[in-house]
# Entry
Amino acid sequence: MKKSIQSFLNKPDVMDLLIRNINETISTTKKDKDLLLTYRDGKAAATNQSLQKNINSFLIQLYSDEVGITNPLGPKKDEKKLLLFYYLLDDLCPIVRSLLYSINLLGICLSKLLTNSLQQKGLTVFTFTGRLYFAFDLIAADNLAVHDLGGFQKNFNHGHFCRMCYVSYEYKSIPLTNISFLLRTEISHEIHLKQVLKSNIHICGINDTSDLSNLIAFHPVKSLPFDIMHDYSEGVCMIMINSILKAFSVRRILAYAQIESRLEDFKYRQNDESNKPPVTKQKHLTNNHIGGSASQKRLLFQLLHVIFNDVIDRLTDILPIYICLREIVSIVFATKIRKPWLAYLKTLTITFHSLMIERLPDYVTAKVHFITHYSELIKRNGPPRNYWCQRFQGKHLYFKRLATRSCSFKNVPFTLAKRHQLRLALLLSYDNFHNLIDKPVSTKIINPSQLPVEIRLLLVQHQYDLLTYIESQTLIHKHVKYIKKTLFLL
Ligand SMILES: [Zn+2]
# Structure
């Protein structure tokens, strides 16, 4: 990892992007103290040991997931699994972070020692005078993997299933307007862990010491955040879609065949077309399993009221839960969050939790409880989009495919690591590591008088009226595609 970070940072464009983004975010949050942009703006950064030692350290985020190397349909599907760790320089700007080649392989084993050496000793690179230090911040993973890494119980259907508070399974269906649960702290966790190690029984959902306990600045209570992709896109949003579609049929508002044909006939516009979800059929609703990728599922959730605009108002009991969840989703998926929104988010999540218990009690899962912690999570670690699993999973897919397609079972970790390092070496041989595309398509020069009056006025106000204007049908700017006649929220 040390060598690959070194080669990575020796690329002038990478170093330039890193430093520019850190300076930009720090100056923006200095000017506007209400803004939460990165991990550095949350409460957790103030107590991070490595950041306390050196405030200028670059942040490193980890991700962990498994790869099955046997036939996924065969009888031995769960027998041979490899645990892969990835790292990401957390200070890169959002667009660069989302590129898959910004995520790199840390190891196909537990490599905590390497990360510690970067935090303690740092490293030098050609593109920067002075020594660079690094600070570990968070580990992203799905709930099961996170509980495994943190030494928590690996079951969400009994006992103390939440890694953020001391709720127990029998209290999960009591509205949080009537009761509240103590949050786990580092001190209380250590006390319970000592008892666990002494008596060899599980206490408060703690099973064992974390495998990563030697990693500097790591603590199971503060370094293992919830993930919006698993909790929302593949969690509560799916519960909502499922219950709405089922309610249409049960209440004889629409038959299953009508639901299917509406989902099939809906025309997705240019920007959404690539994420068009597969049609949800009756068998999917019966099995409570809606297919598709996380982005397809989130798109379906967001367009559900448009697809069923004429009938959704008839679900007078479920509609308020859907509206409440949409409001929550709009905040937790935002890249910039304001501190005053968090109190509102807390109220919204508690309302959502209470409404679910009252109106859809059969669907109250552990994830419905996790949702209620998001305001505290954001207060600690900044916007959840900075530590979601979505892009990491994109990178992980490369290894998942490679593991089964390479058909090499002699030394699978070696094959995977070698193939990845060769690919990385190729990327590092180019002048620029990040090839951010800027490209206009179908362009023509236009006269400012052809522009609408409102736009002309704006241009005059900002003294841009004397420039030459080029109109383009499609514009790719820093990897983001802008198409004419589509709407973008910036
Ligand atoms: Zn909890």
Residues 162, 164-165, 167, 369, 373 surround zinc ion (CB under 6 Å). Confidence is low (pLDDT under 50) at residues 110-114. The first strand starts at residue 35 and ends at 36.
